[in-house]
Every structure is written in C-alpha cells, then in structure tokens.
Amino acid sequence: MVVGIVLGDAFDMRWWVTAPAAAVCIAGGILFRKKSGIAATYTAFAILFVAMTTTTLRTTPLDLPYNQPIECTATIVTIPTLNGHRHRCEGRVELAEGVRTVEINADTALHSQLGERVVLRTILRELPEGGYGELMRRRGISGRCWVDHKEDWVSLENDKRSLPFVFTRAQEWLLGRFDQLSLDGETDAVCKAMAFGHRGEMSRTLRTNYARAGAAHLLAISGLHIGIVAMLVWALCGLLPLASRRGHIWRNVICAVVMIVYALLTGGSPSVLRATLMFCIVQLAFADGGGRSALNVLCGALAVMLVANPNNLYDISFRLSVVAVGGIMLGYGPLMEQMRCRWRPLNWVLGVVIVGLCSTLATLPIVSNTFGVVALAGIVLNPVVILTANVIVLGSLVWVLLPFDFLRGVFRFIVGGAAELQNRCVEVVSGWDWAVAEVSMPDWLTVVCYAAMVALVATLPMAKMEKRVWKKKR
Q1: What is the pLDDT of residue 41?
Q2: Which long-range contacts (CB under 8 A, 24 or more apart) does 277-286 make?
Q3: Full domain range(s) for residue 427
Q4: Which of 448, 429, 36, 388 is nearest to 211 (CA)?
Q5: Residue 271 confidence (pLDDT)
Q6: How confident is the model at residue 469 (pLDDT cuts 50, 70, 90)?
Q7: What total number of domains does the chain contain?
Q8: 344 within a domain of the structure (yes/no)
Q9: I need a surface site. Which of 16, 144, 277, 334 has the fewest CB within 10 A?
C-alpha cells in the first residue's frame, strides 16, 4: 500500500490506467485462489494498483480565486481551536469552481463552532510554500482566509438534521454538564481538551508548556484516550455476558458503537479514527471468537485509512500515531514481562508507565528528524503524566455520563486535583533549560534507531529464556 502511494505520487499516471490494472489483478487472484503463490502475487499487485489509483484521485484543487474579495457560504467542519486572539478551523466553502476546503481564521468574538453555516466576506490567500503549506495541501486544504469583523461573518440557519450539528449540540451538553464541577481556568481547559476534544479554551502559554515538556500529545484525542473510554464502557457492560447467552457479542457491539460516537463527538481527527477503527476490528474479532494479532489489526486499520486518504502517509500526526502504537505493541509485552510482580495494583501502574515510556521513545527519532528538536523532558515526564491522564479522562467521563450529583465535591477533588498536578508538573518541567534540545536527526540515523529498537525488543524474550535455562542448570 505504501509503495503504491509513493509511486502514484511520484509518477503522474491516470486513474483509467491503474484502475483496470487493479481489476485485472483482483480477477487473477480470484481465478488462481487455489494456488497460494500465484494468488498472493496477484493480490500484492492489486493492492499496489489500488493505492496508485486512490493517490491520483485525491489531489487537492488549487483553482480558487486567490487575492480578491469574495462572498461565499461556508460550513465549519472541524472543532475551532484558539490561536492567539483568533479561532482557527476548517470550512467547506461553496464557490463557482465547486466546494473547496479552506483554513478559516476568525476573531474570537465571532464564536465559530463545528457544523455552523455562515456567509463569509473575505479574501482567500494561497498556502505558503514549504513544510506547513505542504502539510495543509496534503490534508485537502486549498487556501486560507481571515475574518475579523462581524459584518463579514453572517450566521445562517443550521441544518439541524446534519451530523455535525447534532454532535456539536451533544458536545455542548457534555461540556455544560462538566462545567458544573466549577474548575479553575487552566484546569478546566485541560480537562475539556483531554476528555472531549474541546481545545478552544486553552491559552498559548499552556500549549507552549505542554509542547516544551513533550506532553502535547495528551491534549489531542488519540489512542490513549480511546483506550481509557473503552475500559470504561467495558466495565459498564461487564454483566452482559452473564445476562444472556450472546451477552458477550452485545458487549462488543455496544463498545464499538460507543467508540464511533465518541470519535465523532471529539472531532474525528486521524489519530482518533485510526484508534477507533483498530478498536472496532478488535471487537469484531472478540465477538467472532477468532485469534487476534495486534500487528495485523494495526496494519488493517492503516490500510483502510490509506485507501480512504493516501495523503495520510505524508501527515506527521498520522505517522507519529502509527509509530507510537507500533512502539507500544513491540515494547510493552517484553518490558512488562520483565517487570511484572505479584501485586496486581502495582502491575497496573507499571503497565501504564511502560505504555508512556514506549510511546515516548518510539516517537523520539521521528520527532527529531521532522522538527529538529527533542523533548528530553518528555522521556522523564510522560510515564508520570500518563497516570494523571487516566484519572482526568476517566473521571470526567464518569461525571458527565452518570447521575452522581451528590458526589460533585468528590469528582471536583479527584479530577481537578489530577489536572492541577499535571499542569504543575508540565509547568515545572518546561522551565528546565535542558527540556528541549535542538537535534536534527538525519534520515539514515532515524532508520538505524528504529532498526536498533526492533532488534532490542526481539532479543528480550531470548535473553529471558537463556536466563531460565541457566537457573535450571544451577
């Protein structure tokens, strides 16, 4: 799949050439399905040509009327995030050239929200050349604009039947319910970002502190948050297998549905979609009673996401998410096996810490290669703050979903205390002189680092087996 995307991006081939080639290979794989070698070869080339076809079809149009005043209708399609005195979001604008996705930077006084329909009077600008502009174009964004005056932002009646509008209202209800805890400013902002994907209230200082401390990933809904929510739903549905013969199937289905709804409520970023897709595949495997392979689940989810949008391959957030999950899959088992003890609560704490350590170390080379910096503080901090992250996300969701009004003080103490502790740790660590080091790792060294990680993980089980044999001989 990856090779097909790279070839489709490098060579300007037409879809009407690659699509028939994919169809021929698929037919060949079916025709020779009883001959495994030939069928596998046809299947590999079918995947290659499918990837090349989707790549040629997913090019970002750059035919907007740039640098001239326009008036157009736009629909906000992402959750706005605070960037200084403006809200930044993405919107689909209706133009004579067709519907295009643009980056909208609106003054905070305009109160933009997901699913809102507005009439914009603005000037569309081209994206800059280089890293940021290329990343935005890969994400399907054709340009950007700024809106600073109320007369240039006219709200229209929203389609109350549209999914963005429905999920926006649901998120507003959840945030309103959470506001009953009456937490302080930055504490409240961090909890809303981590549990509900609402980052519109986070200050620039707070974002900078988390970035310098190497803990910025906690503020974006990802596999960690999906896993915590899955644990909550699994616990709430724990009695279903005892209630009926097919109770375990119903539990898997309910968990998968809740995860899909949660992903949509929190904005549906690539990391959320990847984690949700993996979770649904795992749930189907559990319901079917078949074997599960974590690596197969990851590869299957990634293949589906790359078919849907080949540009994900060039998205740094997508790559970081993949590398982090891969690091956890490879490193968690061997490390946990070495450190496991007889006390179960301590094993749970160790497991959470190891997850944070594996994800941090796995992403360190690619972060250095891409951004030219290494958050050294994150290696120390992440295994600690991942514990507080579990408390914040789990406590926030339990509070908004279950009628525990009489325990408002308890939840405020637990959730607010965990968020304050996390913010304080991040603030202290971000102030260290050595928190961030400017180290730009070359491509070849990045490859060597990942090869060394894989080799180290592969040798851990062998070392443990040799240790057992040595003990038996003694």
Answers
A1: 92
A2: 277/301, 277/304, 277/305, 278/223, 278/325, 279/226, 279/230, 279/255, 280/256, 283/252, 283/253, 283/255, 283/256, 284/252, 284/256, 286/248, 286/252
A3: 178-325+381-435
A4: 429
A5: 65
A6: very low
A7: 3
A8: no
A9: 16
